[in-house]
Amino acid sequence: MDRDIPSLRYGWLVFSVTSLGVMLVQLNIGSLYVALPAVVAHFHAGPAASIWILLTYQLFNTVLILLFGKFSDIFGRRQLYLAGFLVFTAASLVIGFLDNVASLLVLRVLQAAGGALIITNTTALITDAFPREHLQSGLSMNVLVSSAAQLLGPIAGGLLATLAGWQWVFWFNVPFGIAGIVWGMVALAPQRKPSYREPIDGWGNLFAFLSLSGIILAVSEGGIVGWGAPVVLVGWALAVVLGPIFILHERRTAHPMVDLALFNIRPYAMANVAAFLNAMARSTVVLLVALFYQSLYHLSPLQASLRVIPVTVGMVIAAPLSGRLARRYPARILSTAGLVATMLGLIILVFLLSLNIPFWLVGIAIFCTGFGSGFFLTPNTSSIMLSIPASHRGMVNGIRSMLQNMGLVLSTALSLTLIANNLPPRLKNAMFLGTVTRIPLTDIARFIDGYRYAFAAMGIATVLGIFTSLMRGKVQSRSTF
């Protein structure tokens, strides 16, 4: 059979491979959120290094997604997808043997590169393999696998960190990686080399990386070392200087990394901004709630992981419901309704979070944030993909993923900084080590206030997202310019 012609049988064969990739990446992200205190304790990481254990992966993964999207068009999706499995698996294996935090951060960069190779090519491989009339089924099942992995990730991280040790939070990736490499080599058909290779926008990638790095550096370090520290000022300088240069370069280059002309399409622009703001509002909820219970209640990683399950349960329930309703109601209404549900959950956390808050109330709040996000994502993604020409959908999917990752990175950096900034220097690392229960009640109150500030920042992002979502107008499908 000619594998260049999509067929349903081959489509599901490819889906079986991409499911392993989605599981590998999503399980890794969720498991580390819960197991972070155990990892920080082993490496004796300070507050800044603790934050960068998370941010290093998120930052490099965000920037590399767009770059690798172009690479896959040049070198072939199959080759780079399998390379992603190999890099991610090897990095996960080596991390478990490390005892130096600097080495850990380097290996996290490699993990990010492997994860970017996998995520960049997952949707493209499915799109290439499925016949058009069955593509929606393949993509929806891919979302289901991703949701299941997000549900299992925190549980797996808590279970492994509690019963087997922090190393297994990374080592349990290895069997998935090996299975993905072997099965991918068998199932994925070789691809023909493209006849035309569009040049890589090297300068655009460099400017994007440095400007985004500057923002993250300034936001994450400001609450730790002070807002006037040289490293913070350098970060702001990179962002302020190179951000406009990146925009100017992308407007002038013949082969931009990001086609800024697409943002002249109002539904597309507003839906992307809403996606970015939603990512800022939802992405760090699992991390903060897990740290809250480990630090203030001194729960084990496993116990804390069970406390964050309502987030993903909400997403799993809302996503298919939103998909069904999308046939009757416009994306603008459904996406906005999802953001409103997320805001309700954050309002509960901002105004009612305390040392004695009952878990059922926290559970309702984080269920609302998860349900709202699940309700938002499907129609908003559809709005983005239908509002631009079909010939640009590969680039558009990369931009969408990058913006959502940017929201995740900024949300993580800002949230942890707001908490740390509210604590005296002697306590800044307490939130990562799970030792807050051993400090005076007055300091615990300051710790809780920091959490409330973080959730308030997410709430502000959600309110902005609601207005942005409403401004998108009516979406019309575009096949050509």
Can you describe this structure?
The chain is mainly α and 481 residues long. The protein has 3 domains: 1-198, MFS general substrate transporter like domains (Growth Hormone, Chain: A, Up-down Bundle); 201-254, no CATH class; 259-481, Up-down Bundle (Growth Hormone, Chain: A), CATH 1.20.1250.20. The protein has helices at residues 8-43, 47-75, 77-95, 101-129, 135-163, 167-171, 173-187, 202-225, 230-252, 266-282, 285-296, 301-307, 309-325, 331-352, 359-386, 393-421, 430-433, 441-470. The longest helix is centred in the N-terminal third of the chain and has 36 residues, at 8-43. This is MFS transporter. InterPro entries: MFS (IPR011701), MFS_dom (IPR020846), MFS_trans_sf (IPR036259). The chain crosses the membrane at residues 12-36, 48-68, 80-98, 104-127, 139-164, 170-190, 202-219, 225-248, 269-292, 304-321, 333-353, 359-378, 399-420, 450-471. Keywords: Cell membrane, Membrane, Transmembrane, Transmembrane helix, Transport.
Tally of contiguous helical segments: 18
Number-wise, the strands total 0
> Low-confidence stretches at least 5 residues in length (pLDDT < 50)?
477-481
| H-E order | HHHHHHHHHHHHHHHHHH
> How far apart, in Å, are the first and last alpha carbons?
35 Å
CATH structural architecture of the largest domain: Up-down Bundle
CATH topology of the largest domain: Growth Hormone, Chain: A
